[in-house]
Structures are given as structure tokens and as C-alpha cells.
Amino acid sequence: MSPNRFVSRLLGGRRAGPPRVGYLVYGGGGRHPATAHIRVVGPLTRAAAAGRISATQIDQVRFAHGGDPAEYDVVLVQRDVVEPDHVDAFLAECARRRVRLVFEADDDFVTGPARERLLQHGYFSTKLDALRQVVGAADAVIVSTDELAATMAPFGAPVTVAPNALDPALWGADADGGSVGSAIDSAREFVSDDGEFRMLYAGTATHAGDLALLRETVQTLRDETGGRVVLETIGVTGEDGDWYRRLPVPDHAVNLPDFVRWLRSMSGRWSLGLAPLADEDFNRSKSDLKFLEYSMLGLPVVASAVEPYRGIPAHGGIGVANTAEAWGDAIRSVLAESSANAERAATARRYVESERFEPVGERWLKAVTARRGR
Questions:
Q1: Do 203 and 294 share a domain, yes or no?
Q2: What digits encode the pLDDT tens for the residues 211-225?
Q3: What does the alpha-carbon distance between residue 157 and residue 288 come to, in Å, rounded to a whole number?
Q4: Does residue 84 sit in the same domain as residue 181?
Q5: CA-based nearest residue to 312, from 278, 274, 281, 339
Q6: CATH number reported for the structural domain that contains residue 172 in this entry
Q7: GO molecular function, one example (predicted)?
Q8: pTM, whole model, 2 decimals?
Q9: How many domains does the chain have?
């Protein structure tokens, strides 16, 4: 037993200094998927910079098989990162060390409909089984929505809902010299100099089905305007289409901080942000992250009136039924009301800045560092 651990035992499990958090996420070396940046790496980095914790990314193979000499008070696992070949040894090592095991997710991986959908998108059943093992052994679970909390409750661990929030260092007015600040000025032109009215739909590559919700609407609007209404997609799908324009993400902007800077530099090209979402069980557990990000680009937002976006009309967003007629009417209203659009965008931005910027995330951090209770 190390001297530090011996002293900790003498003090009844308490030790001086901030909690030592080891975390497992996809990626490494500062390059991670967006969800890892937003919900784990970013909050831990900010908390460590404030001296409230220490944070170290764990190599799951070394840790699981006894090759990691570092000591941890907490081990935080995001989503399905623990591999099936190592999950038993990983959980045994957590138990041997008596660390607090925290599971974190912002998507549904455990319900029947979610499992079926994920398997259709190429997930292996062994990965989903390993994830369930981790959740079953966790001392605490952190999720992004109330709907996700309900899916995790049967596993027995306390569940904390920590809604998605934006990092002010990336999205705030001072980031990159406040390059988006003028985008919501009342004088903003909502039709570009070249006569196009460009709409943005950005997301991960699993949203092709949601993109299809817009097809009839966009084709109709293009016919009505002689092609001046243009839908541009970033991510969402790898397929080209004759009714939308796919914008590739440059190589230098693949990592989230670089992507946000690139996206903000492009914000003046769009007049509207779209967030279509099919009304399915899997999607009801998602968050309103697109609304937050579009709002900080200075864009008015039209989104499907389904669970993740039901609250956005109170904050300047526009919610619509998932019909071609409703989507078309909403987009036409934005085209016709430039002054109202500026006010909607300003309202949304004020909401995000006042309520959805979290430098550390107190609720999230408390859930991570609370004493081991199971």
C-alpha cells in the first residue's frame, strides 16, 4: 500500500487536496469527439484549472490490467468507451481500488428501441452489453435530460441531470474577438448579397433520417424562389443531394474547439438555423444543443416541436410540426420578417449567455466528486 493510501485509510478515507479524477473518453491528446469535449473533457479541464480537482485521462487497458500506478478517487466513464474485452477486468480494478465509478452519457444506449436503432447503425451488441455492465456497477450516473434519467433509473445508481451547456471560452462574446457579436445586430441582412437565403443544418452523420423531413419543404421553396432558398448541411450526411448543398469540414477544423472557431467565422453566410428531429423514442432523450449553438451563431432557429425543443419558443426559437406545410410556413415567415428575426436571435442569445453558459457546471461537478455511497 502506498503512503498516500495508508494515510487516507487512517483518516477514514479522507485525504488532503482536491479529488483525483481519472476519465475514459474516446480520443486523446486533446482531440476528442464533440460529446467528450462538451460533457467531460471541457468541464474537467476548467475544474482542474480552478484547482478544484486533478484530472487525468486513463488508458483503459493499463488501468484494467494493473499497469496504471496513479491513484484516483473517481473514475469517470463516458458512453460506450470501455471495450468488451476489458470490461470485466476494468470493473474488478475499480472495485479493488474502491474508487467512485461514475457513468456519463447524453444519448440513450439502454432501452430496447435505442438498442435496435444502434445495432442498425453498426454498433456491436457486445459493446452495448459492456456499457450496461458499467452502468450496473456505477456509483453515480450523469445524463443530459430528464428523459435519459428515466431510462437509467432501473439500474439503481443515483442519477443527476446536467443539461448540455456551452463553454464561454469557445462561444462567448470575447472568444476570437467577439466575431459573432455583430451577427444579431438589427441591421443584419437576412438575404445575402448574392441573393441567396441560406439555411444551416449542422449535426452528426446519424441524422440522415431527420434531414429527409426537410426534403419536400426545401424543394417547394426552391421552386417558389427560383432556387434562391438554399439548405446547406455540415455533417448530417455523407451523401450529396440535388436539393441541399453539403459543406465539407476542413481538415484543420475536425476537433471541436477548431470546429467552433471555423463555424463562427462562417456565421455570416447563413440566415436561419434548422433543427429537424423525427418524433421517435430514441430522439426524445436528446438535448437542445443545436438550438444553443445556432443561437450563439446569431441565427434565428426553427426546430421540430418534439421533446428536446418544446421549450425553445419561450427563448426566441420557433417550433413546428413535422409536416412539409408547417416547415414551409415557418421558413416563409422568417423570409418575410427580418426585424422580427433579429429580435428572436437576440432573445435566444441572451438566454444562452445567461442560463446555458457553465464555466465548470456545479451540478455536474458535485455528481462527479461526491463521496462513494454504494
A1: yes
A2: 999 999 999 999 999
A3: 25
A4: no
A5: 274
A6: 3.40.50.2000
A7: transferase activity
A8: 0.88
A9: 2
